[in-house]
Design goal:
Elements (H helix, E strand, L loop, with lengths): L2 H7 L3 E9 L9 E5 L2 E4 L3 E8 L2 E9 L4 E10 L5 E5 L9 E4 L1
Parallel strand pairs: 1-7
Antiparallel strand pairs: 1-4, 2-3, 2-5, 5-6, 7-8
Length: 101
């Protein structure tokens, strides 16, 4: 078995850096990060995730025990998008937003 064939079958992997900014009122809940429909809890601050494939859907939202809010979503392209900043909404019923950094 040649090594070239095994390298071609592995999808391209890239890393994305996301900074999650806490809202001004000091939200006690933690953000949830969703890549291609698979959610995982996160912490406020800067984190790095590995993405595979050419395009990946990415979403961040906040959840308290009663409702989900502050959702913001985008599509990431491997190799082009390297860092994002998520800004939590000023009020709990507004959506969040992404900016590029």
């Amino acid at each position: 078995m040649s090594t070239e064939a095994s390298e071609d079958s592995v999808p391209a992997q890239d890393r994305i850096e996301v900074t999650l900014r806490r809202p001004w009122y000091g939200a006690l809940q933690r953000p949830t990060v969703v890549f291609d429909g698979r959610g995982q809890p996160a912490q406020w601050g800067t984190g790095s995730w590995r993405i595979t494939g050419a395009e990946v859907s990415f979403e961040v939202f906040l959840f308290n025990r009663q409702w989900r809010y502050g959702a913001a979503g985008t599509t990431l392209t491997a190799g082009i998008d390297t860092s994002l900043v998520y800004h939590a909404p000023l009020l709990p019923f507004l959506p969040g937003r992404f900016t590029r950094s």
